[in-house]
């Protein structure tokens, strides 16, 4: 793919990067860092062994005479005698009072109510353990629920007769559930009971087995032992895989900063090494470190290594391309800190937020972590699912590299300008003057992952508002973001005097809108392909549904760009606002018409 | 003293000037909102009623009950719609016609284990919701069956409901919001100190009639002021969101104490390592270790803050003052040895 000299240059720069890192950490500082890392590892292992409970000693429970003490990490237990229990409860010294079979709490106070609820959970678990020990399985857990998932044909009512009868799927038809069969199926079920009891006893004291945390696939449910599918696993998974990469990325951005400060980059640029080679060369060692950490983690968790790499390579590339942006954009040390933190939170939101809903709603398909979760669950996933979540990652990486190489010059890297201007400069440098239309089209197309991230973040932010306002806020924000995404490139061109005539602005607006529209629809198409095909896809991509939105997109973008051309780039925010208002009204009209 | 205040103001100005502090606030808002989404999500799992309310989905269960038990009544008590069906064939038809969301089949009573069969749609999300909604009534039915077997469950009729969102809000979200500014403060301190060290402006500063400790003190002070501002803003915002915080003064003192400790530690790291890269990395690692260690402390900063904010009677002034003690020690040690830290040779 690359010529020999390119490869050689990249490797030389990588080697230099490794040497730099090694000289940084030698002698006493290496020892200190190593000790710190080992300590951190040991501590997290110790804490996870001891049991991690979030709300440790959160409530105070008064325990009456003769009642076994409450051994739950959430409670501080005080032994009180019968007479003073209620008095202490009234004074608020204890949150809940347990005396024999009686539990008392202050009904008018949230803390006390919640304490009682937590105590009930604890007591329930104790009771389940007790009856499991005292009675035989079939008496203690007399209800077994066999769950069967049956495909429902789309568009109820229109249901043609399925090839297989539902009751064929149930191993024994309802009529034949005789005594003989009951015995065998209860034999299987008993082992399920034992397994679920095990996880019940271990929960609360220590982190349950990693795999056991996933949404239960148990075919047989014991209602009292059923665990809610807590998305803890998703968070843990993200934590295990992504956090080491965050640590590694500190060195990547620092390396850029250092060479910016001592002007080594300028020297490098004056040699026959291309910006592309510098960027890839600097990135390469850190990507390799990340891949090593991914492999190690997969080994530790017992996953499938090639599959894990296939899932997390795009994630790594994505993270590093974001950090490349950070490295190119920041001007001071403080910038670097805040940008890095912003990058961390944006990446976490993008990766973790959708995957929290793995198995609950289909938004989870957006995140590659969802694939990892499926991998650890032992579920298969198709190529289209893989592409849906990883294509944006590869895209971001490609765009990041491209933009990086375009802006990689002394003036841009060393200049201290306001942030907006810095972004505008980057756009200006990225757009290829000799292929103006193509550049603007591709810009519209490739900006979509960024738009999508901002919209996701806005959804998370809007969660703080009450429902109708939240919905409104998300709609407003997404319209504004879309309008900016489509018109920003043209505004920059206007600012730099590259385009002047109204005709040029108009054609470019249409091209930008086309690019954005194509990207948006492409993403939607893949999404629908993965989530549910047939009718819906046909409806969305049927003639009428395509022409009108495309025209609308072109119209709004033209409006924004033309007003910017007319009233100057300084008024660009106002132009965006005007376009967004119309776009918003159009959206409302469409929704109104449809409903 | 006025010189010191002037230096603190200079530091603060450099933080606010670049508007990057706006980014910091956005980050915290993101983190908090993100967590609240998680909490809401979690609540839906723990609390089937709330899932019913938020989705506005009424679950209709087709019931083929050959046992003559009380299941239909229990399901109706849990505000589910029940459609009694005579046999499997009609249940199947109703399921495919979309008249019922799930089908439960109960075999004839045989005295022993009841093997119920539950038919759910394939769609993951819908099946999850239905399972969660069915959980409580099924548990009640299970208790009934146990009773028939002569197994008595104590506390089964207890009506208290666990509220995971309450615990989450106070023991995770609130401490996270209140300690996050401390993390930022540490980073700011590292940035300002290593920037001066790498640009060699610290030497220029020191030729003015100010001592090293005054310079460092001003930097730490400025960082702590940002902590105070952010934490106050958070408590105000939380108050607007109807989250009550008891012992507000102590909560703020605790977050300030943690912020100051982190800032001093960060200052020590940047003095020792003298470049941002190593200082930041060491800082991150030490922070991870410190968070791990603090979990082993009783009460840990997280649980102390949760206790204070919920008005627990077990925590109070004494615990907070216990946190001030290491702060004083750390501060004294740092300012005593600051010169030596600065002159310490680090390889590289």
Provide a quick synopsis of the model.
The complex is a heterodimer of chains A (595) and B (348). By secondary structure, chain A is mainly α. Chain A has helices at 4-24, 28-50, 82-91, 110-134, 137-140, 166-169, 179-202, 232-261, 264-269, 275-301, 305-329, 333-355, 368-377, 383-407, 410-414, 419-430, 436-446, 448-462, 467-495, 502-531, 535-541, 543-567, 572-594; strands spanning 59-63, 75-79, 96-99, 102-105, 143-150, 220-221.
Distance between the termini of chain A: 53 Å
Structural class of chain A: mainly alpha
SSE class of chain B: alpha/beta
How many DSSP-defined strands of chain A?
6
Q: Tell me the overall shape of chain B.
A: elongated
> Could you say which overall geometry of chain A the principal axes of the C-alpha atoms support?
globular
Number of domains as seen in the coordinates of chain B: 2
Tell me the quaternary state: heterodimer
* Helicity of chain A, as a percent range: 55-70%
Low-confidence stretches of chain A: 154-188, 203-218, 533-540
| Share of helical residues of chain B | over 70%
Q: How many beta-strand runs of chain B? A: 4
Distance between the termini of chain B: 37 Å
**Strand fraction of chain A:** under 5%
Instruction: Characterize the largest beta sheet of chain A: strand count, sense, and whether it forms a barrel.
Output: 4 strands, mixed
| Mean pLDDT over the residues of chain A | 77
Largest interface: A-B, 131 and 125 residues
Q: Over the alpha carbons, how many angstroms does the gyration radius of chain A reach?
A: 30 Å
How many DSSP helices of chain A? 23
